[in-house]
Amino acid sequence: MMSIKSTLLTLGLTAALLGGPLVAGAAQAADHKVVFQVSDNDPGKWNLTLNNAFNVQKVLGKGDTDIEIVVYGPGINMLKMDSTVGNRIDQAEKAGIKVVACENTMHAQKLTKEDMLPEIGYVPGGVVEIMKLEGEGWAYIRP
After folding, report:
1. What CA–CA distances, in Å, run from 139 to 56, 77, 88, 113?
2. What residue segments make up the domains of the chain, in order of their start?
3. Nearest Cα residue to 95 out of 69, 117, 77
4. 65 in the Ramachandran plot: left (φ > 0), alpha (ψ -120 to 50) or beta?
């Protein structure tokens, strides 16, 4: 009879050889994870950030990369319905790039979700979100 330790070792080696996860049905984590900070109300900075995010996907592979753009402070204006970069935010979301707005900033600026682009997500605090992701090993970029 195999011990639990031997069984786990065998399962781990089999999973490694087959290139799959250790647990059946477990999702394979992305090889690369990057979080971008945008806190400027500047369309040029936004376009640079979006270009960087698309380039990361292009170079490293869309399926191998998790990308999140965290927006707070004055940058939140670029996520409003009348945003000059709204169409690019939609393209980013469709490409699997997550764009999230800081609810602390929204509250301070008296913005509601109805004021914002429909495809974005929300986090309670932008800085805290970046801290959390960095703690999980995500690369941090501020263009």
Report:
1. 12, 25, 23, 28
2. 1-27, 31-141
3. 69
4. beta
- What pLDDT score does 139 carry? 98
pLDDT level of residue 30 (50, 70, 90 thresholds): confident
State the residue for tokens 């974005």.
Answer: 120
Q: How confident is the model at residue 107 (pLDDT cuts 50, 70, 90)?
A: very high
Burial status of residue 36 (CB atoms within 10 A of its CB: 0-12, 13-18, 19 or more):
buried
- For residues 96-104, give the mean pLDDT: 98
- Which ranges in 1-143 belong to alpha helices (H)? 4-18, 43-60, 86-94, 103-108, 126-135
b/e string for 84-123 if b means 16 or more Cβ within 10 A? Answer: ebbebbeebbeeebebbbbbbbbeeeebeeeebbeebeeb
Phi-psi region of 40 (alpha: psi -120 to 50; beta: other; left: phi over 0): beta
Domain covering 31-141 assigned CATH 1.10.260.40 in the classification: no
pLDDT, averaged across the chain: 85
* pLDDT (0 to 100) of residue 112: 97
